[in-house]
């Protein structure tokens, strides 16, 4: 008789948990996974995937306007939110099915219910069933944070934004980070009046200042309003529908929808972590070492619940490294969290890798910055007065590239390839030695003066 029911029990079937479970099973482990909501987790069900589909949908608004300068006439164009919403939700269900199939084809047992650690190696499911496992992986992700304010229960978060029955005429979005800027772009392109409310005076902290400023200027030109250095006093329902929204130092205003996008809280409550002896950090995140091991030897944690870098590819890499290291026939290895490229799918999008100009100056002293500030060819013909910006930050005499930052149509697509070069430690001279592909926006990368 085996000592435990499973070699591995994973709590949470999101990006990190699914990858770890599938790979551990492929290494020969007997694996079970519990999911209390839907297989796929935040990324597939209510994050990256449906968000990107809405971004695509939203962008047609500009394309349908710009296409006229390219000779196209489109009569009677109209937009049907319910059609887009339902098509997106259908595709989410399809992908959920693909994730479930992957787990099942690897003989991973799926429990479609909540799980909690109730003993050193014991897990109890919501149905009351108890199982044991030699190793436990916590991959429970994070949930939207809600600020403290009167009437906070009247607001929605990104979770609900994908299910709206109608688009708001006016939406107030709290936050100045990824989600706030992405949804500001989405709602604005669909014709909603958007007001972004940020507690501080900076959008997208962590991104390069000139790129952030460019997004702010373009967003204002597109009609998005911003209120900085303020928080909510109250949100009160109005008899005629919608809400009265009062911000500190501002007059009360009306809105049809309030959306909170003020960060995410690791899902660590009600998991039995205290009793199990798993240590948490200041923000409730699970503390782990470089191998994703918690303070308890046989309990590991990956992804957003550890609050290292809250991105899907990072959760996936952490899950893969954990499974290979614990169940594979190889030397344990850890995930390199340096130089991770990222993107904000705003309108237009931002993408970045490595140090910003400010960071590089602080850390490295003298740096050289190359910059290309240009109006993409398509925007020129379309009469769209929107400029793009690409910055390259270089270090030392050999001008090793330590950061690239851009705001441009398709910036995330360009960045994925550029990030390989930065990660590999290439220099400005290596870029200069590469022949341009003309005419593209990406050729700016190898033509910078
Ligand atoms: C709106 C939005 C857009 C995003 N866009 C991007 C993007 O474009 N690119 C990008 O890289 N990242 C994006 N992210 C971040 C990305 O979704 C997360 O970093 C990623 O999903 C984290 O994966 P995870 O495995 O740690 O957790 P999750 O994917 O959140 O999975 C955790 C799972 O655990 C389940 N769970 C929790 N507690 C229990 C329990 N006790 N028992 C059973 N199950 C439980 C949850 O239901 C959930 O399904 C976005 C996030 C949001 C919210
Ligand atoms: N494209 C992507 O890769 C992508 C997209 C969406 C989300 N994500 C991930 O999800 C995480 C969460 O996203 P997010 O946008 O919720 O958080 P975030 O950390 O990016 O931004 C939070 C913002 O809210 C502001 N804020 C905090 N409290 C506030 C308050 N009370 N009132 C007004 N503003 C307030 C902060 O100043 C900050 O600008 C991100 O950190 C990111 O890792 C990634």
Descriptive account of the structure:
It comes from Parerythrobacter jejuensis. Residues 7-319 form the FAD/NAD(P)-binding domain. The strands form five sheets. Strands 1, 2, 3, 4, 5, 6 and 17 form a seven-stranded mixed β-sheet that branches. Strands 8-15-9-10-11 form a five-stranded parallel β-sheet. The mean pLDDT is 97. The protein is 32% helix and 23% strand. α3 (48-66) packs antiparallel against α4 (81-105) and α3 (48-66) crosses α6. It is α/β, with parallel strands linked by helices. It is globular. 41% of the residues are buried. Bound molecules: flavin-adenine dinucleotide and nicotinamide-adenine-dinucleotide.
Features:
binds nicotinamide-adenine-dinucleotide; globular; alpha/beta; 449 residues; Enolase-like, domain 1; 3 domains; FAD/NAD(P)-binding domain; binds flavin-adenine dinucleotide
Bound molecules: flavin-adenine dinucleotide, nicotinamide-adenine-dinucleotide
Task: Find the CATH superfamily of the largest domain.
Answer: FAD/NAD(P)-binding domain
Number of domains in the coordinates? 3
Give the uncertain stretches in residue-range form. Answer: none
CATH architecture of the largest domain: 3-Layer(bba) Sandwich
CATH top level class name of the largest domain:
Alpha Beta
Largest sheet: 7 strands, mixed
Q: Helices and strands: which structural class?
A: alpha/beta
Q: Name the beta content range.
A: 15-25%
Number of strand elements: 22
Specify the helix fraction band: 25-40%
What fold name goes in the CATH topology slot of the largest domain?
Answer: FAD/NAD(P)-binding domain
Distance between the termini: 70 Å
Number of helices: 13
Given the C-alpha coordinates, what overall shape results?
globular
